[in-house]
Design brief:
seven-stranded antiparallel beta sheet; seven-stranded mixed beta sheet; about 400 residues; alpha+beta; binds dihydroflavine-adenine dinucleotide
Length: about 400
């Protein structure tokens, strides 16, 4: 029996839609099934509604995976410049915000519209609000039962269900179940790019600083990120903290060095020389938000005029601000995590095509795979690149069938 579809893609997220547009080349018949009512929900909310769709400096070093070489081939096959070409073909205006991060000028919805247009150009079918009830493999095709009671068959099955982060946006972990059904290894998953939470002992002092942001160097587990931190009602967040969270494990301390570019000791001594009668809190508030400055002064029990503080006391204050040690009690978990660490073990996948080595025709792409990017557009670049790798491989099969 001829399969109803050449390819069934599970999940109309970033990776799934990109893959479908490429798999539909050369006449392949493709269906994308999405259980949410709308496609690309995470794209819509990404980058504060502007979608940080790639990063100009994207390379394998920006990803965490048990096999740090796995992502190389796909990333080389579809570069950030390729995605920029696609964005420009669709007249979507964009800008570089900082550190190579590219955003839409107007709206993330333009990226979703672009992907839908690319799929429509290849006559890809899209079923929304439908979930998958059962998947079986018989001979050289997959038999899939859908929640609307229909069954379809497909020669290729692409699992693009994403990870577990933000369940209320459609995340299910279904991709991991499918991998396990086909006896593939799934590495332990955990929330990443996620704010830290503090215990009540720390919150007692930090809670009243909620909303304060400051540039910092955040170090943990041998890595360091220079970006902003943001104190929250539950703990601490901000880009530098989210980056560190991907490396953090329970009970690990996190070192926060405030304003790493500032030589505080030299600055404080200069002010002591120039205007010694000024209050130390007023002086420190020139560099840090007042409440944060007061927090460190309270910690070091320093008050009064800066002229009365000897070098040793200033040096101790500077040492504390440069190495503020906090031990989070945990993270905010999948409820707010941007991505999921771990997932389908790359050992079971072909790095050029994303096809399962043990199950011909079965592909895993995007976040469901054990490849997790840093904050800054890297995760979408992985979604596009892995989707394209699988889509091209499938299109090549269609061509030769
Ligand atoms: P994605 O989660 O996008 O798509 C999976 C799809 O599968 C979903 O539509 C889901 O509903 C569907 N699905 C799940 N189970 C299913 C089932 N059983 N049946 C049918 N469908 C099913 N990254 C970045 O690079 N730049 C950024 O600006 C941001 N910003 C950002 C903000 C926020 C708030 C979050 C939560 C995440 C980001 N990210 C990001 C991360 C980025 O969104 C993420 O890495 C990609 O969306 C992953 O793409 P996937 O296609 O793999 O999964």
């Amino acid at each position: 029996m001829k399969p109803a579809y050449d390819t069934l893609v599970i999940g109309a997220g970033a990776a799934g839609m990109m893959c479908a547009a490429f798999a539909g080349a050369k006449g392949g018949k493709v269906l994308v099934v999405e259980h949410c009512a709308a496609p690309g929900e995470k794209i819509r909310i990404s980058g504060g509604g502007r979608c940080n769709f790639t990063n100009l400096h994207c390379g394998p070093a920006n990803f965490i995976s048990r096999n740090r070489h796995f992502a190389k081939s796909a990333l080389a096959g579809y570069a950030p410049s390729d995605f920029v070409t696609l964005v420009e073909k669709h007249d979507i205006a964009w800008h570089e915000k900082t550190l190579g991060q590219l955003f839409c000028d107007r709206s993330a919805k333009q990226i979703i519209a672009m992907l839908l247009e690319e799929m429509a150009a290849k006559a890809v079918d899209l079923s929304l609000g439908i979930s998958i009830e059962k998947v079986e493999k018989a001979a050289d095709e997959f038999a899939v039962r859908l929640s609307d009671g229909t069954s379809i068959s497909a020669r290729n099955l692409v699992v693009a269900c994403g990870g577990k982060s933000i369940p209320k946006m459609g995340a299910t972990g279904f991709g991991y179940q499918l991998a396990e059904q086909f006896k593939m290894d799934v590495l332990e998953t955990r929330p990443a790019l996620v704010p830290f939470t503090f215990g009540e002992d720390v919150l007692r002092d930090t809670r009243e600083m909620a909303g304060i942001a400051c540039d910092a160097r955040v170090s943990c587990a041998g890595v360091a990120f220079d970006e902003a931190v943001l104190i929250t009602h539950r703990g601490i967040s901000g880009p530098a903290i989210l980056q560190a969270s991907s490396y953090w494990r329970e009970k690990m301390p996190v070192a926060i060095g405030l304003l790493p570019e500032t030589d505080f000791f030299a600055e404080l001594k200069a002010r002591r020389r120039a205007s010694g009668r000024r209050d130390i809190a007023t002086v420190l508030s020139e560099f840090l938000p007042r409440r944060l400055a007061e927090y460190f002064l309270n910690f070091e029990k320093l008050t009064g005029n800066i002229a009365d503080l000897p070098d040793a006391k200033l040096a101790k204050l500077v040492a504390t601000m440069s190495n503020w040690q906090v031990t989070p009690t945990g993270t905010e978990g999948y409820r707010t995590a941007e991505v999921t660490l771990g997932g389908v073990d790359t050992d079971g996948l072909d790095a050029r095509t994303m096809e399962a080595k043990s199950v011909p025709g079965l592909y895993f792409i995007g976040e469901v795979v054990d490849v997790t990017g840093w904050l800054g557009g890297f995760n979408f670049q992985w979604a596009w690149a892995s989707g394209v790798a699988a889509g091209r491989a499938i299109a090549a099969k269609n061509f030769s069938k």
